[in-house]
Amino acid sequence: MAIDTNLAEEVAELEVHARAAARDVLASGAEGAERAHAWSEPMARAFAELGTRGLWVPADCGGDDDLVAAVVAVEAFATGDAGGLLGADRPGPAAGVLRVLPDRGRARALAEAALDGGTMLATALIDAVDDVAAGFRVPWAPGVEVPHALVVAATDGVAVVDGGGLAAEPASASALWASGGVALQVVDGDAIARHPLDADDALVARAVPRLWAGAVLCGVGQAAVDYAVAYGRERIVFGLPVLGHQANAFDVAWATATLEAARTGLRAAACHLAAGRAADGGWLATLAWLEARDAGLRATDLGVQMLGGHGYIHDHPAQRWYREARMLVLLFGGADAALDDLADRALDAPDPLVA
Amino acid sequence: MAIDTNLAEEVAELEVHARAAARDVLASGAEGAERAHAWSEPMARAFAELGTRGLWVPADCGGDDDLVAAVVAVEAFATGDAGGLLGADRPGPAAGVLRVLPDRGRARALAEAALDGGTMLATALIDAVDDVAAGFRVPWAPGVEVPHALVVAATDGVAVVDGGGLAAEPASASALWASGGVALQVVDGDAIARHPLDADDALVARAVPRLWAGAVLCGVGQAAVDYAVAYGRERIVFGLPVLGHQANAFDVAWATATLEAARTGLRAAACHLAAGRAADGGWLATLAWLEARDAGLRATDLGVQMLGGHGYIHDHPAQRWYREARMLVLLFGGADAALDDLADRALDAPDPLVA
Amino acid sequence: MELELDRSTREAIETIRGLGREHLRPLGMEADRLERPIPPDHEFFQMLVRAGYMERGPRSLDAAGGLDDAAAGDGRRTGRAVRNVLVSEEGAYWDRGALVTLPGPGLGGPPVASMGTPEQKARFLGMFATRERPLWAAFAMTEPGAGSDVARIQTRAREDGDEWVLTGQKMFSSNSARAAWVVVWATVDPDAGRNGHRAFVVERGTPGFEVLRVEHKMGVRAYETASFALDDCRVPAANLLGGEAYYAGRANRGFGGAMATFNATRPVVAVHAVGIARAAHDHARDFVRDEVPSHAARRRRRALERLADIRRGIEIGRLLCVHAAALVDAGTPNGREAATAKMYAPPIARRAIETAADILGEVGVLRDRYLEKLVRDVKMLDIGEGTQQVQRRIVARHVIGSDIVR
Amino acid sequence: MELELDRSTREAIETIRGLGREHLRPLGMEADRLERPIPPDHEFFQMLVRAGYMERGPRSLDAAGGLDDAAAGDGRRTGRAVRNVLVSEEGAYWDRGALVTLPGPGLGGPPVASMGTPEQKARFLGMFATRERPLWAAFAMTEPGAGSDVARIQTRAREDGDEWVLTGQKMFSSNSARAAWVVVWATVDPDAGRNGHRAFVVERGTPGFEVLRVEHKMGVRAYETASFALDDCRVPAANLLGGEAYYAGRANRGFGGAMATFNATRPVVAVHAVGIARAAHDHARDFVRDEVPSHAARRRRRALERLADIRRGIEIGRLLCVHAAALVDAGTPNGREAATAKMYAPPIARRAIETAADILGEVGVLRDRYLEKLVRDVKMLDIGEGTQQVQRRIVARHVIGSDIVR
C-alpha cells in the first residue's frame, strides 16, 4: 500500500514504443486513412504488433488486465492517429461491461471474439437497462460489417444485445472516419442478456468507455499542441517566433497543464479500477472524462489558432484534430450522462486519498 | 425607430460628471468609509449633488424615469466606491417593483419616501409571492435603522412588506460595509400588499435589481482594471513594465472586453425596459447580469494578480474590489434566480434585433 | 440610445432571410458536401444580380459605403453600418460560406470607399450598379510570410513611368479568383515597414496576375479562398488607391488606410460568428422542444439552461458588433470597439456551438451534417480579418498605451 | 502506480485532522476576525511542541527533508514528499493561515536540507528536534523591487574577513518576525544577475536585522507576513548556505538552489489551494444536504452538479500535486510538473470556492464568515511561491524551449 503516481517501468516503456509507432507509422498514414475510411495495412500492423488490446480485458476473460497500461497506450497511439482507434482498439470501451458482467462465461466469449478481431463490440450508454427494448442508436460502429454483439451500460445494469439483423446506416461524422463511419440503429434491442447491477458496478461499465475516450482526447490534444509548438518555434511574426510572444507561450503552457491534469486523472482512475475500487475509479474516471473533454477542446482549438489561416486548411493536420476532438467529446453519452452520474453521487462521493 | 447604441449627449455628460465625482471624492474616501461603515459627509454630498436617484423612478411616482442614465451613473459612481451605494442609491434596485406595482398610489408613496432619504426600500427576490408569509432574509440592508418597507419580487408577482418590527442582525459580509452591514430577518413577512403579475411584468421587478448590481459590478471591475493598468505601466519586472509582458496585456484586453460586453448588455436592457418592452428588457437584463458577474469576478481577480503580493494587502484597493465583487455576485438571488428565470423562457425567448 | 427596428432595416433583414432560407443554406450545405466553392457561373448568382442584390444587402455596393454618404445614421433612423451588421448576421445565420459568395465589392469595397479618389469610386464601385452579370471584388493583404504582422508584407510595388509593377504573392484572399478587381497591398520599400505601404486596384485579366490555387478549407467552403501570384504585374498609375496625394501627407497613410478598413469591416465579420451561433442555437432549441421528452425533466432543464447560456453569448456579442458599427455611423473612432467585438464574438460563438452539440449529443449531431458543419465554420471567424491575438493587441494598446504594448 | 493509503500516511493525516478540527480552524477564524496573526507565545504552540509536532507533520523537520534521506519513497510505501502533500492538504483544509504558523523550519527547511553542509543541517535543522519551545524558520527572497523577477534582487552580500555583511530589504516573508533564523537570498554583484546569488542563514538577534512591519493581508491572516531590513547585518561565513564550495562549481548555483527549493515546495503550496477548496466543498455539500429542501428539485439538482464540478477541480488538482511530489520521491526532475500543479490548482480552487458561494447564495454565505473567508484566503495561493505568471513561464520554457521563451 502506497501512494505513488509514477508509472511502472514496463508501462513507461510501452508508452515509449507506442509513441514511436504513432510518430513513425500512424501519423504519416492518418490523412490517407481518413480518406480511405480505414487504416492502411502498415498502420493496422503497427498497432497490432504492440499487442495492447488485451490490456483492457480482465484476466478471467483471457486478457492482460492492466487498465493503466491500456490508458497510457491508447493515448500514445492517439497522438499518431485517433481516427482508426475506435475500430482497432477492441474491446477498448466495451471492456467496462466485460469487467462487471455477472455471466463470466459470456464475458469470456465476448472478449475472445473481440480479441480475435473477427468481430467487435460496440458500446452504448443508456439510462436504464430495461430501456434496451425501446431501441437506441450506436454511432461510429467501426467497420462496415455489423458487430457480433453490442454491450450496453445503463445506470442500473448492463445488457448484451444480439448484433444479428441490425440496420447499419451511413453516419454524418466530421471526423474519426478511419474507424468506418456507419451508425447502427438498434430498433428493438434484442437483448441476449440483461443484468441489473449495484450502482458502483454499473458505473464501472460506464467509466471504462470514458477512460478510453478521455485518453484518446488527451492524445489528440497533445498532438495538436506538439505540432503547434514545432510550428510556432519557426514561424516568425512581429519579429519573433510565434511562441516567442508571451501570450501564445502562456496559452501553450495552460493547454499543456490541462492535458496533464486530465491525463493524471484518467491514469489514477484506471489505477483505482484495476485495484477493484469500483466506486473510487468510476467517480474519478467520470470527473477526468469531463476534464479531458475540456482539455481536448482547448488544445485542439489552440492547435488551429497558433497556425492562423494555415491551421484552417487541409495542408496541416490541425484541422483534423480540431474536428476529431469535437466528435470525441460526444461519445459515450458526452457530458450529459457524466453529469447525471456525478450528480447522483455528489452528496457522498468517495475521496480515497483523504482517508 | 432606429438601432443606435450611442448614448444621448446628456447621458454621456452625466457619465463624465459622475466619473469625476467618483475619482475626486468617492475613491479617496472609500477606505475610510469601509472602516466607518458609512460614507463620509462629503461622499454623500458628492453623490447627492448629481441627483441621479430620481433616474430610477417612474414618472408617475415623481421620478425622472431614465433607466439608461441610471445604469450609466451607478456604474460611474461604483468606480469610486461601491461600498456605500446600496445605502445611498435609493430606491435603486427597488425601482423594478415600483415600475410594475399595480397600486400606483402606493408606488408613488414608496418612491417619495425613498427619495426623501428618510427611509429606504430593501429588495428581496423570492420564488413565489405567496411565500412572503413564510419569511425570508434580506442581506445588507443599508444603515442600521430598519427600513420603512421592503419590496419583494417573486417569479409570479410582487409584494410590499411592512418594515415595522423587523429584526436586524449584524451581517458577516466581507465587503460593502459602507452601506451599513446588517441583515434583516423577516420572520413572518407581514405583507402590506401582494399582487400577482404576468410573467413579463414580474420579470421587470427582478430585472431592475440585476441592472443595478450588474452596473455596480462593472464599475468595480473597471476600477480594478484601471488601477492595474496604472500600476502595471510603471512597475518593472523581468526588464519590462508588468504590462509590457504580452500575456498580462492580453489579459487586460480580455478583461476590458468582457466588462464592455456586460456594460453594453446592461445599457441595452435598460433601454428596452425604459421603452416599455418588458419581455425584451427583462430577458436581456438577466443575461447581462450573468455576464456582469463573470466580468466583475475576472476583472477584480486580475486587479489583484497584476499587483502580485501588493494586490493582496490593504495598502492597495485591489483587495477591496476583489472582496466587493464576490459579495455583489450573490445579490438579488445571484446566479440561481437568474438561471431559473432564463430557463423558464429559453424555448421562446424574445430576440428584438432579429426581427 | 434606441433599440427598435425601423421598417427599412426590418425589411432588409427579411429580404436576406428569404434568400437565406431558399438559397444560402442549401447551397452552403451542398458546397460543404462537395468540398468546393459555389462556381461563379451558378444560376443563383445570375438570379441575384437580376433582382438587384448587388446594389443592396451584405457585401453589396451599399454595404461598402455606397457612392455617396447619404445613408449615415442621424439618430432617427438606423445607420448604414448598423443595418449592415444586422443584415450580415442574418446572412451568416443561413450560411456564412454562401453569404461571402454574394456578388458585390465585398471586402474590396471599404478601402475603395474610404481611400479612393472620386474617379476611382465611380470606376470601381460604380460597376456594381448593374443588373447584367455578377461581379465580385476582393481584398488581398496576407502573404505566405506575413499574416497577422501585416507591416511585414513583401509584395513589391515599383513605379515605372505611368505604371506600377507589382511582384509578390498573396494568399487567403476571399473571392479573388473570380474578382473583377482586387485591392492589393504592396510596399514600395520593404525596409520602410508600414510607411512603405500602398494599395492598388488590380483588375481581372491584368497580365502577371495568376491564381495559384483555391484552398481546401475545414469549413465555410462555399466561397473560394485563393492564393495568387503577381509576376511583374503592371497596373496603371490611376489604380494606385487614393492617388499619390493620399500617401504624401503624414506617415503610414497606406497602412492607416488598411487599418481604417479593418475598423469598418471587423464588426461585420464578428457578427458572422454571432449568426452562426444563432443558427446552432435554433437547431438545438428545436431539438429540445421537439425531441427531449418532458419525462426527462433533468436533462430538459439542463438543456434549457444551456440554451440560455448560448443566447447570452449571441445577444451580448451582437450588441458589441452593433455598438462598434453605431460608432461608424456616428463618425466616432471605433478602433477599440471594433477589435473588442471581433475579439469577443468568435470564441464565444465557438463555445456556444460546442454547447449546442452537447445538447444534441452524439445521436443528434450525427443525424445530419448540420451542427458539426457549424462547429467547423465558426472557427474561421477567430482567424480571418485579424486573429484573436491581433484584436487583443489592438485593445491592449488602446487601454494600456502603445508606448507599453508593442 | 499505486493509490492506496498506507497506514502511516493515514495516521499522519488523521493526526493533523484532529489538530485541525480542534485548533487550526478556530484559531484561524479568530485571527481573521481580529485581523492579526496568532501570537508566537500562544499556548497552542507550546502544546504542539510538547506533543512532538515540530518533528513531524507539515512544516516540520520531517517535511523539510529531515536529517537523513531514509524516508524517500521506494515504491512500496508512500514517499515523504507525497505524504507531506497529503498531510499539508489536510492542514489547509482546516485553516491554511493557521497551518503556516505551525512551528518548524517551514519554507526555510528545504534550502537548508538541499543546499546546506552537513554541519549546517545539524545546526539549523537539528534545533527543531526539541520539545522545549516553539521555533520557526523562514525564507526571504522577495524585495520591494523584486517579486516574480527573483534574479533582480538587490540585497547586497559583501565579504568582510570571516563575515558576510548583508544590506537590503525583504518583504512578504512568512513567519520571519518570529523566526529563529531566516534563509536570506542576497547577491554579491547585482550586475551579475542570477550568477551573483548567495543564500545566508541569518539568525534571530543578529544586529542589523530589523522587522519593519507585519502586512495587513486580505486573508490567511493567522500567520505573519513580514518585511524586514538588513542594515549592515553581519553573519559568520559559516552561515553561507552550502559554503563557498557550493557556489564555486557551475554558474547560477545559488539561483539554482532557490529554484530547486521551489520545485520541492510548490506542490505543497499548490495543495494548500486544494485543501481550501475542499473545505468550501464540504461546507456547501452540508448546506445542500441539510438545507436545500427536496421539493426545490431544480435548485437541488443544479447544486449537486456544481458540487461535482467543484470536486473535479479538487481531485484533479490534488493528483497533480501528488504527482509532482511523487517525482521528488523518485528522484526524478519535477520542474515542469511542480509548476504545472502550482499553475493549475490555485485558480481552479478559487473558481471552485466561488461556485460554492453560488450554491449557498447570499443568505448562506452571510450567515457566518466561513465561506467568504475562504474566498479571500485562496487568492493568496495564486501569488505566493511564484505567481500564476511565473508558473506559466516555467512550463512554457519546458514545453517550447528556453531559447524561444525568455
Helix percent of chain C reads 40-55%
Mean pLDDT rating of chain A: 89
Shape of chain A: globular
Return Rg of chain A in Å: 20 Å
- Unreliable runs of chain C, pLDDT <50, ≥5 residues? none
Mean pLDDT across all residues of chain C, rounded?
92
Order of helices and strands of chain C: EHHHHHEEEEEEEHHHHHH
Greatest interface by residues involved: A-D, 54 and 62 residues
Strand content of chain C: 5-15%
* Sequence stretches where pLDDT stays below 50 over 5 or more residues of chain A: none
Based on secondary structure, the structural category of chain C is alpha+beta
How does this model look, in words?
In chain A, helix 1 packs across helix 3 and helix 3 runs parallel beside helix 7 (199-234). Chain A has eleven helices and ten strands. The longest helix of chain A is centred in the middle third of the chain and has 36 residues, at 199-234. In chain A, a hairpin with a 2-residue loop joins strand 9 (236-237) and strand 10. Chain A is of the alpha+beta class. Chain A is globular. Chain C is an alpha+beta fold. The longest helix of chain C has 39 residues, at 253-291. The two termini of chain C are 35 Å apart. Chains in contact: A-B, A-C, A-D, B-C, B-D, C-D. Strand 1 (3-4) of chain A pairs antiparallel with strand 1 (2-3) of chain D.
